[in-house]
Amino acid sequence: MGRLKAISKYVVIGIVVVLIIVAAVAIYVMQRPSVGPTSVELTGDFEKDVVEVGKALEANGVSEVTYSVWSGGDPNSVMRVLGIVEAAHRINKIWSDNGVDVRIKVETRYERDPGAIYDEFLSKQPLGQAGDFFVNSYIYISTLAEEGYILDITDYAEKYSDLMDDFYPTILDAMKWRGRLYGLPQDTEARPLYFRKDVAACAGLDLTGLADKVKNGEFTWKDLYNWAKQVKDTGCADWGVIHRKGSAHPDLIQFIYAFGGRLYNPDTGKLVVDKEAIYKWLYVEWKMARDGLIPENMMEWDWGTQIHPTTVNGKTLVFIGGTWHWTEWQTKMYYTDPETGEPRGLKAEEVKNFFYYTLFPAGEPGKDPVTLSQPYAWMISSKAGIKNPNYDALKELYHELAFLILVKASDPDINAIHSIISAHLPVRKASAQLIADENWVNKLKNLEIDLSDDVKNQIKDIVEATVNPINTEFLSNVSYMLEYTHTTPIHPLYPKLAEIFKDAVDMVLRDEKDPAGAVQYIISSVNADPDLAAEVEIVGEIPGGWSYP
Amino acid sequence: MSLKDVEVRSRKTEVLIALAVILATLPIIIGFSLIILSSFSKSMVTNFDPKSFHPTLENWINLFQGKSAAVGGLREDILKYTLNTAIVALGVSLLVTLVGTMSGYAISRMNFRYRKQFLLLILLLHAFPGSVLIVGVYFIYRLIAPLALGSITAFSFFYVIIARAALEIPMATWLMKGFFDLIPWEVEWAALIDGASRFTVWRKVMLPLVKPGIAAILLFGFLAGWQDLIYVRTFLAEKTLATFIEYNLGAPEYAEMPLVAAAATLYLLPTIVFFVTSQQLLLKVSLAGLKR
Amino acid sequence: MKIKSKGFFTRRTSEALIFILPALILIIIFYILPVVLSIYISFTPLKNWNLDRYLGEIVGFRNYEKFFYMLQHDPIIRNVFLTTIVFITITLAINVLGGLGLALATYFVSEKLSAPFRTLWLLPRMAPIAVYSLVWYYFFHGSEIGTLNSFLMHLGIIKEPISWGHDIIPWGPWSIIIFVNGLVGVSFGMIVFTSAISNIPKELVIAARVDGASNWQISRRIFIPLMKWHILYVTTWQLLSLLTTYAHIFLLVQWGLVSRQYGTTWSLYIYQVAFTGRTDQGLAAAAGVILVIVGGILGYITLRMLGFEKMITRPRGDI
Questions:
Q1: CB contact under 8 A, C74 and A521
Q2: ipTM of this predicted structure
Q3: What does CATH list as the number for C76-276?
Q4: Alpha carbon of A1: minimum distance to chain C alpha carbons (Å)
Q5: Number of domains making up chain A
Q6: pLDDT of amino acid C313
Q7: Cys-Cys crosslink for C213: which of A485, C59, C208, C250, Cβ 3.0 to 4.6 Å?
Q8: In terms of C-beta density within 10 A (0-12 exposed, 13-18 middle, 19 or more buried), how is residue A172 classed?
């Protein structure tokens, strides 16, 4: 027993000594003073600013800066991270051309699930272990900005007004929260309605000029019902309409806008439940399901074995899709070759021959057609640069450099490449010009453009599979849709509301509730959650005697 | 452990029992076989439609090249992920076994104050949901993390292992108590009278007698570490095979399912191997005989 | 006989302490402390992991009020409670009895046959949860791509695919979630009981056989009584697990396989409420505290019912 006491005494003393040493080292390491400038005044002249920042870093003894970029989404959208890599290459070149002995190194992480990488960013940011750049949907900006996890770049951006002016205004607005700017636009898209040309022809439906009729509000969902019915009656396809599963946001939310409804009140900053528009939306889904035009278990369908194959193999007249599906159907194997019976991707010509595309039609006469965009944003973590030397003293420099990287990543060609290979839409006018430039597109196809080898190698297979005139023609043809686009509300509780909508859609499709009952369910669910109830305004009334079609 | 060497018993009952077990196991066999089959097919095989099976090795080739999609995506180091998963699993397994056999022994054989309350407490802790517990564990991580001194990666492995192992200690303690209880008191008394220290008695006399229990804890610990998602996702500075698979399945509209099926099959293989080898250990132990 | 009688009590306790210490340290730091912290957090508005901002802010019982308010007003809450009760009782019975049954069955069958089966029954526990959910998503899918539907249609038993998780209310979704969780839970008992049986001296069984005992009699008279502690442990542990588990049904609900109303247990409901569309950790902590109180009470009752007191006999391992 005595021996035990003696041993434990020495152990305790030993631990205390070790802790003191550790603390001393930590304090010393953290408090190295800076020897050079700790920030640079940005001027808006990119090369000048970059060189100044580089020189300042060099003066502080920094020779390498490491950043990490996190993002997620479909496999073709790798430029969301490689754009940062390319920007770093370009800045490194400017530095070496100007005798600045500093380099940027970029670590990349690109996940299939954007929601999962967001969850991870949330938990790792306070630990200083999250990506320095975060590229994800704008819907996360409100929460990330509220919590102080991303940088307010309004002041930096003011110096680069030329760049800001070249972005399409509505998309740039989506990057703001409470009037301040938190990101630069990375991409956007539209959500066309895809019509199968062969199914329409079989049912005797004439697609000529349909896109314009939808645009003018002449062709509405009432007409679409009749078309779907005809297709079903003539046995030309299994279904009239199919759409996404798993979530009402974003594709199905278009119904609310198509019926002239609102989701957000900009005056009060609150979400809106527009009873009339939602009722009509749910009624359309309910009626079409009852009449066999849309599957009752649509929300249960499997993407890989049902939704995509049904669309690609012509078993439905309409698919409520997105622009990126145009290239996805070429790179994924959803099509069953009628001759060999083997699954394969579609060829670009086949996509063009199969699909006609329009805006999301107006709900009923008197309303307007819509589409929905969910822009992605380049965001900077408020701890960007934390992995680098002397972060506490040089924070401002690392943040400025991060912003400059974003400016470079917004180069027109980087945005144009991303748009073409992933079938998203350009976010600035200069990129749209490049996309329309056939010569440039041809050079891209042969990878003869001015891109670092690193990035070229990583996008080689996607470029090969997706860059061709048919795909660029598609992009040009859909860009008009951006004039009709809506974005879902930038509000931290919007995702919660969207989840409630999803349940309501499933209920009406399966006839577990009728449309009025489903609207009631939505209201009860909103009211059951005190936080949500406080942030939602319930407006309008269920229209009596409204019939569809 | 079985009676095949002991007597002749009714073949009929043996066949009946075997049949019942087979029937009960059928859904598992079918379900998992389809996933494994799908990993060798261009499209997922989910029903008994032979037309949906299109044989290919592409998924496996892509997987080992680190691709998460046939076209596009970035290359990832699957072997590294596998290694990471193994490190966590082995670390948890060994730590839980070591600590659990010690605490289980003490509770079973030694009388000390609050013994019963301790047992009760650690059992009822299991009622606390993991999704809530994680915030507390996260807070402690923030407190301790500065001690990492540079290697955040190594520290994150260390932390995940000890934090995850801690969750399995109650189970291990309870289980080992049950095994130690079955050993007669005389065995210990004899050793102690001979002058052996408590520790020696535990190590040389008692542990060999509870090998099946140890095998069970080793297995459970390994499975807990191998399969863990919440701790690994929140703290580990690298990815494991589990997070890789989960992140792909979380986006079914973009995921390339047959490739994910291949990753899942890869994930299951080592554990099957592990289990089979530990079964051998169990078998050897019981055939060698417990000398009583 | 040398007995160290001087300082007998302290020596004994300090000896026990050395053996318990590692477990104690780990449990205190990574289990008890976090639980205490979570209780504290339930009184703060913590969200989005933002400890710096919210940890110092106390909002009293607001989270609890919010939670009870939701319990009162959410339209699906009645079905959630019903589902929870049915789910826990039936799955618990399956887990314990099934594990016992499998352990006994594989004992009486030759080893060559039982080893592969025990491995197969481990697969549910081994698989990553998303993959496991994927297996049953395809198996019970309500359209023709579903394995079960396809099987029954090929046999001619049904003509149209049945939406198991949605059309057969409430036993459809209930059966699915019980089945899915049961398969995982059974393997736990199976391993514990198999190990326990292998620790029982063969001589007992041989002697009983010589006396002409059947498999059933051997099981009932020899094995089960000797496994009382293990049965007690498995039952209580599984009960608490079932109260808190949600991972294995979370994806089934999200992917639309089962109706949300009849596929959501209380713990999944809490998870949905706190973490869908936001990360409200204060609320989750409050709900977690309530869950623990309920679980603790139920667990304690189970222990008393199964004779915990009697099994904690005073150890006589010291001389």
A1: no
A2: 0.86
A3: 1.10.3720.10
A4: 7
A5: 2
A6: 65
A7: C208
A8: buried
